[in-house]
Amino acid sequence: MYSRFVALRIRPAGREIRDATEGVELAECWVLAEWPAKEAEPGQFWLSELPADTPLTTLVRLAKLRWRIEHDYREMKQALGLAHFEGRTFNGWHHHVTLVSLAHAFRTLRRLTHAPKETASA
Questions:
Q1: At what angle do helices 56-78 and 90-113 cross, to 10 degrees?
Q2: 42, 43, 34, 11: which is closest to 24 by C-alpha?
Q3: HEC profile for 6-18?
Q4: For residue range 55-90, what is the model confidence (pLDDT) as tens digits?
Q5: What pTM did the predictor assign?
Q6: What's the per-residue H, E or C state across 76-119?
Q7: How many CB atoms are closer than 10 A to CB 36?
Q8: Pairing between strand 44-48 and 29-36?
């Protein structure tokens, strides 16, 4: 997948926002836009309060981190049984979630340590 990204510093505006903050000027923030290569216009936008000197690569990495989190959550629900708990106590639920999280961490570490190594071409 290939996309172009642009990040600009903006100051959010709007009557509802200003009313909610008691008329005070809002601080500048980042607006990050993703423009897929084959699309006519940008498709996704994010607002961020990260510092003004944050590099574009960091903004993109953090914006796309949501995909990784959703993928891990889906894996924990479908492959490791996170959604299968039917108990009635907090201790039972906590035990179940802890074991599922450990299983997920174990699988992730196994996948990372047993990943095919890149060979240097001569």
A1: 120
A2: 11
A3: EEEEECCCCHHHH
A4: 999 999 999 888 888 999 999 999 999 999 988 899
A5: 0.61
A6: HHHCCCHHHCCCCCHHHHHHHHHHHHHHHHHHHHHHHHCCCCCC
A7: 14
A8: antiparallel
